[in-house]
Amino acid sequence: MNKKYIEDNKIAIIQRAFSEFLLLPSLIILFFLFLSYFTYSIDQVKIGWLQPVRLLLKNHFFSNSEATSSLLGAIVSGTISVTTLTTTLLLVIVQQSASSMTTQVFDQFLRRKTNQFYLGFFVGLALYSMITLATVNPPFNPVIGGTVAFSLTGVALYLLVLLMYTTIDQMRPSEIINAIHNRVLNARSRQLDMVAYTTIIKPDNNQKGKEVVTAKGGYLTYINTKKLAEFIAEHCRGSYIYFTKPIGTYVAHNEPIAEIVAPDETHIFLLAKEIIKQTTISVKRDLDQDPSYGIVQIETIAWTSTSTAKSNPSPGTFCVHTLHNILSCWSEDEPVEKDTLCGSIYYCDDTIDQLMRSFENLAVVSSESMQHQIFEAILDTFSKMLDRVPDQWQPKIERVILIMLSVMGDHVLTTALDNSLNTLAAQLRYLGEKETAEAVDIATQQLRNSVGKLNSRSTRV
């Protein structure tokens, strides 16, 4: 088992490398290989309508094979040197940014298509020039190949300028966080397509199900609920699947991910095999399928910048605003239109719970580092969103508010914090949540009593 597990991990690492970064550079390098063959063929055939152009280039730039060889040699050595130095510098920039913004920077840098294109272009150009250089052999003079190499070198030099700008631009906290934000929204759309084939209502029976366990450890990154629902409808009518782990959960080897309730053993055997086939376990969470992972990434960036490790409220505040926008976007989503086959698969979607936990955690870290700006931003988020979120989400927000009150004593009651608390209490009263509003009023008054007195965080309340 251990040997098979190691082999599976190696395959997964290779697949992840291509899905995250290597696919586009590899395709571009293959294009340059094809281009080298194409230009070599043109130089060999000497097409009639190209002859005037070829003679013009030969007379002014590529007079003989020695001149072409020297030019191509300079292009190859220069391209390799510049690419090496630039890549080293960029890695230093990324490393410096990661030291302040956590390792989430690496993930965003690798997944940017522009970064993949730049690397593939530089490596492909160097490889193209080397191949063309290898074909130079008097009396053969690759005029067309040399011209293409020379022209693309000019393009590459300009791309170096773009590469420097785009890399520095990508390292800005706002760009990193916004990139995660966009991927979270896209991942949620895909996740809702998966949820459409599931139900949150368990049948009211106490029948014990047959557990389905994983063959390897990792994160549950994908469940093809559509295929499972169709399989049950076609082969196992009357059977049910209960997924006990939401997307993004870590499961160890031989741990259960689902339970099967079926009328006979044949259905159980068939469904267990199909569940393993239609679920994906990976060594790393997948942001393209798991919006909760993106929320955790934003929370981690905010935690690192807000805590006493960095004490920088600006990125943390922007993270809270980003989570605010995510909550706002999801609040306006139409209810999931369930498929007719949804009743056979139970799945508990905990994405909103994860979003609320992130607000909780950031409130705690703002208290630890006495960053009242973060605390205010969270209060403002709830004040604006309480009357906009679906009714079933309001108790979750109220619970977070009550938890925040328990750590609020570490903050100084600034004017902005006082206004945020008063606005929140007024909004709660307007919505009829009098108990929570009263709790906010009492906590605010206790903190207000500390104003005008000499206090430390341990004696303020």
TrEMBL record:
Keywords per UniProt: Membrane, Transmembrane, Transmembrane helix
Transmembrane regions listed in the UniProt entry: 21-40, 71-94, 115-136, 142-165
Domain of life where this protein originates: Bacteria
InterPro entries from the UniProt entry: DUF2254_membrane
Protein name: DUF2254 domain-containing protein
Species, as recorded: Spirosoma agri
Pfam families named in the record: DUF2254 (PF10011)
Keyword Transmembrane helix appears in the UniProt entry: yes
